[in-house]
Each structure stands twice: as C-alpha cells, then as structure tokens.
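Lecture notes, structural biology module. Today: joint structure prediction for complexes of two components.
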Amino acid sequence: MLHEKLKNPPYLEVAFDIPDWRRVEGIIHALPNNDSIIIEAGTPLIKRYGIEICQKMHQIRPDSVVLADLKTIKYGRHEARIACDATADVMAFAGVAPIDTQEAIIKECHDIGILPLLDTISLKDPIPVLDQLEVKPDIIELHRAIDQELTGTEYQWQDIPKIKKIIGNGLVAVAGGIKVPKVKEAQNAGADILVVGRAITCAKNVNSTTNAFLREMGVL
Amino acid sequence: MINNEFQIGEALVGEEPEIAHIDLIIGEKKGAIGQAFVNSFAQPRMGHTPILAVLRPNLPVKPSTLIVPKVTLRNLEGAERLFGPAQSAVAKAVADVVEEGMIPAELIEEVAIIVSVFIHPRGRDYQRIYRYNYAATKLALRRALEGFPNTKTVAEEKDKASHDMIGFRINNLAMPPYLGISLENDSWIVIEGILKSLPRKDAIIIKVTAPLIKRYGVEICQKIHQIRPESIIISDMKTLDTGNLEARMAGDATADVITFSGRAPIKTQERFMDECKKVGALALMDTTNLANPLKAIKKLNSKPEIVELKWIPNKAEVTKIKKVCGIKTLIAVDTDIKIDKIKEALTSGVDILFVGKSITGSEDIQRKTMDYLDKMEVYEVDQFRVMTDF
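The predicted structure, tokenised, for the full assembly:
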C-alpha cells in the first residue's frame, strides 16, 4: 500500500534537524522543484515547534511528501494520529519501541492512510524485530545516529535485500551522514531513499548541492 | 577575630516601606577593607555620598564605620533619612556590639566597617527607620563575625528557601517522595483545565509527555510554568539522537528535568547528560523497552540523576541502582500507579510516583490528587516552621 507519490524510487529525503524554522523555511524555498525530493521534519524540529510544522512545510511545497520523524517509542497510536492531523504523509517510529507499540502504530497508520516507517536507530539488528512484527512497516530506515557519526560507526547495508523481502517489497531508506560520493554505494546496496541532512541543509549553496545528489542518483 | 582579612554579613529587618536591608564588611585596615574605605571616602559619587556613622554630631563610632547609600539620594528628604535616623542607628549598633565584647576593645583601631544601607524613598517613619536599621546592622555584624551561614545551613536551607521577589524556588527534588502528574495527549484547553484543578502542593511535579511536546512543541513547558511557576516540569523528550541539541532545547524552554531513552546510543545518552548539566536541569533515564536498566546504566560513564522504571521495584532492585548511580539518585516509577500500590512502592524506596489518567481522567481531579498525597503522607516544605528571618 505504498503512497502514490512514493512509487518511483529512488528518492532524496532532505532531513531538517535544525530547530530553527526561519532557516528551515529558507532552505525549503531554495530546494529544486523535483518530484524525487521528500521533506523530513526532524525530531528536534518537531519537538521545538510542534507537529504543525509538517503542515507549514506542505504550505510551501504542497506536492511534496512530508515525513514526520517522531521516533515514537511510547504512546504509539496517539502520535500516529497527531502526525496525520498535521498532514504528514509518512510517520517514523523507533524500532527500539516495544513490539506491541510498533504494531499499534503500523495498524493505526494504515487505518488513517499514512505510511509507517521503522527507524532502526540504536537497533543492533533490525531483522529479528521485523520478523516479530505481525504487521510490517512500509518503509525501513537504516539509521546511523548523528551521535554515532562522531564515533565513526560503520553503515549496516548488507541486509537490505533480505529486509525488503520481509516487508514485502517496501522501501528501504538509509540515513546518517551520507554525502555525494556515498550515493552510488547506497543505491547498489539496494537503498530506495537516501536521507541527507546537514550535507544539504548546512551547505552554502543548497540548490546546487541538492542537484548534485539528484544527478548522482540518476534522477536529474 | 577576623578570618582572611575581612568578613561579610547581611540582614533584613522590618516591614515595608521602612524595611532595612544591610550588607556589611568588617576587616583589617591594613588590608583590602582599609583601601576600599579610603577610596570610597575620597571619591563620592552623585547620590551615593559615603558618610561616617556617628552616634550624634561630633561623636563618630569606633571602629570607624562608613555608610554607603544603596538608593540614589535625589533630594534633601532622602538625605535627611540617611543622615538622621540611619546614620545614628548604624553607629549605635556598632557601639553596642563592641560593648557586648564581640569586637575586642583593643582592636577597634585595627579594623574598619563598610555598611551598605537601603532606605526606601517612600519610607517616612523615622522611628521605624531608626529601629530597623539598628537591628539589621547589629544582626549583620554578628553574622559577619560568626561566619554565618555555615556550609551545613546553606546546604539544608537551599532547597527550602524561596525568595520573596520570585515566590518560588528552584526545586531540585531534594525532598522525596513526589507525585508526578503525567499530562498526556490532550488539547491545550484540557491541559489548562487539569493544571488549574491540581492543588498547589510542593510534592506535585508535572510531566509533559512526548506526544504533547511533539504536538505543541517544547515551549509548552514554559506555558505550564506560567500557570504553575513553582512546579518542577519534566520534559519527556525520550531522546534517541542529537542528545545535546534536544537537552538544550528543553532547558531553554525552562524544563527542570529532561528525559532521554535508555535505548539511545551510548554517545547520545552521555552527550545528553552533559548538556543537562550545562543548562542546570536533571537528566532522567526512561527505560521503555529496556529489559535490564542496570546493565544499560553500567555502560554509561556519567549517570542520570533519575532512573524511571516501568514496574514497581523491590527494595533490592532500588539498592542496586542506587549503588551504581550514587546514593542521591532518585527512582521513579511510571505505571499510572493506583492508590493501593503506593505504600508498596514507597516502602521499596521509590522517590517519584507518576500517575496519568488515574488522576487526569478522574471526575474530581483535585480530590483524587489529595487522596494520593494523603496516602503518601507528604507535607509542604517548611509547613510547620514558625519563621521570622530564620
């Protein structure tokens, strides 16, 4: 049940984890107008301004898929609801949440018509978790935490084909300090969505940097 | 008599507007005090002319005492209040302290005193100005000479003290047990209603749960502080990544306690706790879906101030956690605890009981909260203390 707008991967997901709306607004305006771009409202941004930030993003880019990175770990159904109420298209929850919480989120998302995304942050191996889930998420995000980038933790991309099989050909996103030279490797590993944060949002020239990513991905 | 060249005292006596507030320094003329005395004496500033304390004109007190007005003197009325009642009251207090033997007579030429005097511009009653300043100077001088307050007094009183101008204290959860009210996903109007129904009690702390923060933004903590300035607010960030950023955001939004997930990467947890220290907040470790919190805590270089469990622990579990984290670590339980389980939890050594819908969803929130507090047997800070100045 993929979102209509997510049927043609690859996608470039621009993650906004800068908790400053004025800057975020400027960067969104500077992004090229391309259907392959997904806008992510990062966790700090949501916690700072509230989930309504998703709707504000939609007001600037009505056509884009907006992802609410709630990293939900408890109160699953509540959080799925507030994301939907705020016009988010995708809702991200934490793979380290209790299994019943995760299942409640996935079901609730399906009921209200948004896509659930499982974020593997701090999860050693996502496969046992995916196996346990009665209902599967539509998207898996293999996430190396920002705080782990500092320690140089390696990406875990070797299991992408296996993961895709478990979730019934859903999408796999990869995140955590991805830069242009890493794009091909991620795509070859089977990634459908490349999540890029500060490499774009903190770039001097947002537009051309984004285009560089899109070109490398072969969608420009 | 005097340690380290000089000693400092402070006292506040009386009622407004004549209320007297004295800050003073007593010290050896050969040292810094002597220099400050002479400098101040020789360089008067407009509206703050220093004058000698005199018992009456032509009779200065010993040790020599310099009075420095705190409030700018704008007219003769102001000057009269200082030069008349305050000047002689300070002198009388110094003379009496000497007579009582607190300053040995042979030292009166060795030491000097600088007294900073507050007189409210609306103070009219010379009787009051005189008596209040006499009392405050005497008290401040005695305190200076006795080295008041000592470390023990400061440590004990800091968690009880509330400054009159602020009306509340930064409460660092020093007097458990506490009743934590978890505000869940309701609209702001409902939350406001709940907050106004809660009784005003020192033992009540407020937890803003993650869905509420995500719905309204972390600024909601400050909005709640506007309604209940005296309450501790726990910002339930349940941080999984960007530890320092999220802790800082919550700290900026006036949160007193900030939560992180025990499932976050170690680096995230440590950066989070570091940042909490920088913003003066306490870090709470949330153990959602953490099978063995103790194991997780052991891996951390720095330890959280509060550990929140999802079950009611027994005494041995509490002891183990406190052994690893430090004796002052608080143990919280987040189970929407029912009244009949309170005794069990408190006996095990739980410090904070979190209650959600059992209170916020009840018909009579105030009554229900009081039922919980009665069962917990908690009283207000200093409820039974008869307090004057101390």
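Point to remember: Chain A has a mean pLDDT of 92.
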